[in-house]
Amino acid sequence: MRYDIAIIGAGPAGLSAALNAKIRNKSVIIFGEDSKALVKSKSIKNYLGFTDISGCELNDKFKESLTSYDVEYSKERIQTVYAMGDYFALSLKDNTMVEASSVIVATGIDLKKDLKNEEEFFAKGVNYCATCDAALYKGKEVVVIGYNEESVEEANFTAEIVGKVSYVNMYKKGVKLNSGIDVIEGEIPLGFIGEDRASKLEFKSGKKLSADGFFIIKDSSKPQRLIPSVKLDGNHIWVDNKMATNIRGLYAAGDITGEPYQIMKAVGQGQTASLNAVKYLSKLKKKD
Question: Taking every annotated instance into account, which residue ranges of this chain make up the domain FAD/NAD(P)-binding (predicted)?
Fold first, then answer.
């Protein structure tokens, strides 16, 4: 099945985009989970129509708006978005592909800085999907730097394939890992050391950990890693006033497009992106 619109991100921008697409009878799939930044907000006083509401309550209100529509949800992480001409192929971590005629990126923004030499050693010992690439390290030593629940699953999966796994715990105390996985607590990773490829992970304490491969598992990928050849404006995706990127059929909305990082802005941009994606689909249909 090829969806009309695939939306990457289930925060305010993504849900707004989905609602406006479904009102116009488009098939939609949303990838992602609730916005952590929104859900953790205890009090929101500047959202029009609500004098004071918690982020969790507002998030529930957003999702209620979609309950009467047939929207497909997936918690699968999109690894890469490939522009294929008149459609897009979205790669999942099990190497399966989901097709969509248009894509709206609403992933939010990852404000964490890269580790030192992370970009330089990307695909040269530094990877972002253990499920995708663990087989490359069969019988070897691997380090998983984990920032979320997914990283725990990835570490357990990787341990069944590689020779040895060390898990640098940046997530929470009491993570449940399979026996045989070395857990490193209380260390802050600074960056990677190596010549042609990453061979060591350096910590703030001065400790260094050698391995054949390193996996960084966090909540979101940098835009240029998610979508090859997308035009950037600093750390954000460049868009015009229609929320269109430099890639035909690809739109972006919300924090990923730049400041201000505001909920109402995200909702409005999600609507704008969706309306213009629908127009784009109409042009595609006429072309056929």
Answer: 3-270
